[in-house]
Amino acid sequence: MKSTFTLTAAALLLLSACSQAPTEPPALTGTAWNVDASASELSYVSIKQGEIAEANTFESVSGSVTAEGAATIEIDLASVSTGVDIRDERMREIFFVVASNPKAIVTAQVDPAAFEAIGVGESTDTTLDGTLSLAGVEAPFQAEVSVTRAGPDRVIAVTDKPVILDAGRFELVDELGQLQELAGLSSITPVVPVTFSIAFER
Fold this sequence. Notes:
Elements: H1 2-19, E1 33-35, E2 41-48, E3 52-58, E4 61-65, E5 70-76, E6 80-81, H2 85-95, E7 103-109, H3 112-117, E8 123-134, E9 137-151, E10 154-159, E11 163-166, H4 173-183, E12 191-201
Antiparallel strand pairs: 1-4, 1-12, 2-3, 2-12, 3-6, 4-5, 5-7, 7-8, 8-9, 9-10, 10-12, 11-12
Helix pairs in contact: 2-4
């Protein structure tokens, strides 16, 4: 009799559990995404003498996207790499003046749910409206970006087209002139195309 009662009670508990609505999985959009610095790259091309193009990179990029979609990317200006030591030194000390302006900061507002809407292995194109803060000056910019879901917890944002930045917009024309004079050049183009590939993970 006790055995029959036990089996009956267990069956009722099982039926009760099955009749309840399934528990919804936690919303993944409530999770912050962080920059994977080792897999991210930010580059720009400088043009001197009107026709000589040189690729340059920043070796250190960090940042995150909060659960609310506030994106912040920090660029360590001291990590600039032009392939020439003396030029790196001049960029750090004369152009960026990293002692006073150690970082450039990009901010933007994105839709975190859009990350979740992309299936693994799929990509989507979007226009990012952001702000770049450099040497105490802020300026808006737009970037055409392709976002790829590389894994359940990994997203990669890559520029579809270069972002064009003007040194004059950030009041760096005088500093550019000093570099030009030190290098003995007839010109350094103040407008540069910038590209990036930023990996985010959670």
